[in-house]
Amino acid sequence: MTPEPQASLAQVSRAIRERRCSAVEYTQACLDRASRLQPQLGAFATLRGDAVLASAALADAAIARGEWRGPLHGIALGIKDVIDVAGLPTLAQSRQLRGYVPERNAWAVDRLLAAGAIVLGKLTTHEFAFGPPVVGECGPVARNPWNPRHFAGGSSSGAAVAVAAGMLPGALGSDTAGSLRSPAALCGVVGFKPSRARIPRHGAWPLADSLDALGPIARNVEDCALIYQALALPPGPPPPLALRWPKPPRIGVARSFFNQGSPLQAQGREAIEAALAVFAGLGCSVSDVPLAPLRDWNAAGMVILLSEAYAFHQHWLRTRPQDYGQALHDALLLGATLSAADYVRALEQRQRLTAQLDAAMHTVDVLIAPIQAGQAPRLEQLNEWGFLETPSFGIAFNLGDYPALSLCCGFGDLGLPLGMQLVGRRTGEQSLLQAGYAYEQACAWHLRHPSL
Amino acid sequence: MPEYDEAAQWLHEHLARQGLGVVPARFEGFVLAYQHLQAMTEHLRQRSQIAVQPAASADDA
């Protein structure tokens, strides 16, 4: 019997392993649902056809021979369309890459395939994972499955939409300033940005090389952990297997991210305060942690992001400017206005802020901060320059390269999800996932799904 | 922070010098974004510990 569309990856995995459902049946169900919902939600840049069923049949045959490769065996996943999959176009939602079909998989894709996963397709993003969503010739705009008139977040937008809508149980995306965590929060699913060294980025198109990280989006913390486990490299403790914490962690609150010019709205604040009370009820100590205001993090983060993005795109900006969408073209040009001195000062500020964060993290195990101001805005409310005008809650932990997890912590008055982010200690992915798992079990927000 | 007209003029000239002569479509918004970014770089400059140290004497110079 085919699992429900919103069944967790872990549940589907058990069903396939125990042959209560075949990988072919499950993949077909994902394909059917994705095809039905794609016109409404725009999650896929490329949705593979029936050819993918041949991969699923191979997965079933291997299980029949007793060759089970692990929890991802026979599981259909999606890949953000800035990450190469051999034989499928990588368009990055840009005319610059028109006609590009990679011959090799990205490192992370190879890793997922080796674990038995099946790639169902490439998932919508924003052009080169930057800027606002744009309707155009290079792919659809992903729409929030809780209300398609609303933003799905970015830039791993298709990943969050496909997972929230039950098209797929999990996806691989990238995160430069919150691009896994923000769409996950706005769509009511879980986004996990591990430390950068955990998942090599070969074969993934960069946005800002010193900030970029790869990671999973899934419907719950356990599913994220299962995908992460297949991807992650040492150093540090082995990938997480045990999701129950040995003892309640010490929780810190990044209170300066709530105040001092923060765009956090009342409903978002209330949901996070309620989550802090849940952690306290689970036996955690909860205390405020002093951090610099968002403005400091964002100034350093944006100068680094724009400088590095410009460096990567400089040649094409000079020779093929017409092959960028207008919004990305103009955003990248801003990078040309920055000087070497600006970049060096941003790196210096990054070092100073990260040292402050390092010191703060000695006193707690997990830090809690907002990840979005509130519920998803309507698509027409988005501003081309919003990335400069509204501080990002996410970029601080790209600057510091801390593992960070976003998850649902309630719903707002429009019926749209509210999210928060949990930040772990360096190489502390396991205890971070444990904290997220404990919260999720206590609140069960992850069991709510959009009606589609 | 430079005034709008001054910023617009500088941007036209600077982008042309860089071989980036395609003017942003919504130029006014671009100039405002540039001014916003300038406020960030000014903020970083104020926070910077890298400061110009003038030579104390002709010998030091």
Number of strands of chain A: 11
Radius of gyration of chain B: 17 Å
Written as H for each helix and E for each strand, in order along the chain, the element string of chain B is HH
Oligomer: heterodimer
In spatial order, strands of the major sheet of chain A run 1-3-2-4-6-5-10-11-9-7-8
Tally the beta strands of chain B.
0
Share in helix of chain A: 25-40%
Average of per-residue pLDDT values of chain B: 82
The best one-word shape of chain A is globular
- SSE string of chain A, helix = H, strand = E? HHEHEHEHEHEEHEHEHHHEHHEEH
**Average of pLDDT of chain A:** 95
What is the terminal-to-terminal distance of chain A?
21 Å
Q: Count of helical segments of chain A? A: 14
Organism (chain A): Pseudomonas typographi
Protein name (chain A): Amidase
Domain Amidase (chain A): 25-433
Structure description:
The complex is a heterodimer of chains A (452) and B (61). Chain A is α/β, with parallel strands linked by helices. Chain A has helices at 9-17, 23-41, 51-64, 107-114, 157-164, 181-187, 221-231, 266-281, 294-319, 326-335, 340-361, 386-389, 395-399, 429-443, and strands spanning 44-47, 76-80, 118-123, 170-175, 190-193, 213-218, 250-253, 285-288, 366-369, 404-411, 417-424. Chain A has an 11-stranded mixed β-sheet with strand order 1-3-2-4-6-5-10-11-9-7-8, with helices on both faces. In chain A, helix 2 (23-41) packs antiparallel against helix 3 (51-64), helix 5 (157-164) runs parallel beside helix 6 and helix 9 crosses helix 10 (326-335). Chain A starts with 8 loop residues before the first helix and ends in a 9-residue tail after the last helix. The model of chain A has no long low-confidence stretch (mean pLDDT 95). With 61 residues, chain B is mainly α. Chain B is 57% helix and 0% strand. Chain B contains 2 helices and no strands. In chain B, helix 1 (4-17) crosses helix 2. The longest helix of chain B is centred in the middle third of the chain and has 21 residues, at 27-47. Chain B is globular. The model of chain B has no long low-confidence stretch (mean pLDDT 82).
